[in-house]
Amino acid sequence: MRLLAAVDFGLTHESVVATAQALAPALGLEAHLVHVIPDPYFQGLAHRFPDLAPLLREALDRVEARVREALGATGLKARVLRGLPAFAVGGEAARAKLVVLGQTGDDPLERLARGGLARYLLHRGEAPVLLVPPERPLTEVRRIGVGLDESDASLAAFRLALSWKEALGAEVLGLHLVSGEGGCCYPTYLDPKGLSLAEVLEKAEAFLRARYTPLDRLLVTKGEDEADLVELARREKLDLLVLGSKAKRTWRRRLGGTVEAALQRTDLPLLVVPEATVW
């Protein structure tokens, strides 16, 4: 099976390549790099200005040759495609066990381009997507945190985390928030009315330990906003945060509030696991 790493020679390029080089052999996968040259714009120019067509073709051919050379220097298998990046990478991702992308950067254009690709793949929900920041490649995994709740998506994320624990020799830490009514994480799996916070936390922990086993550690704490889970992961100095996603739901809440918060706020490597994932 393949680990597909999409690279764009931007700020996260080296981080994505280093992650692919380290993770693929550890997980028993074959790393493949893919780069997409977005040529529809140039095709439109050539159609509008036919005299530019030969120059544009030559320029694109030279770019493709230089990109192939650069990707070949990584020692990994690589493909250079032309087209719309989201669709081209999406087609490759359908045949991958894991997809690695660079996390969204600070530049507005970079945020639009890379953020759009990540969301497109996450919404399709065909494979787990690992997002790595520019300065934090996932080359060594010692502490994996997984967001837990009562959903099947969370169960899929937990099972993948256990598989990675075995392959990478890591510790798995379960993270769970409990909020009041109207908050992000009201515990619908129990009846909290009339209970003290301490009693709710105790019952929540018992529920989660029965559902998710084995766990190295479990942290159940009060939190009113999904972003509190990201802060908890940061305080615990995790190497990787794993979250489950229902993916193909209505557009408004398709990925889930916790995944949305993590996409916007985390500076940790983030692995989003579709509910249907079998690792």
From TrEMBL:
Residues 2-133, 141-274 form the UspA domain. InterPro entries: Rossmann-like_a/b/a_fold, Universal_stress_UspA, UspA. It comes from the Bacteria. Belongs to the universal stress protein A family. PANTHER family: STRESS RESPONSE PROTEIN NHAX (PTHR46268), UNIVERSAL STRESS PROTEIN UP12 (PTHR46268:SF6). This is Universal stress protein. It comes from Thermus thermophilus.
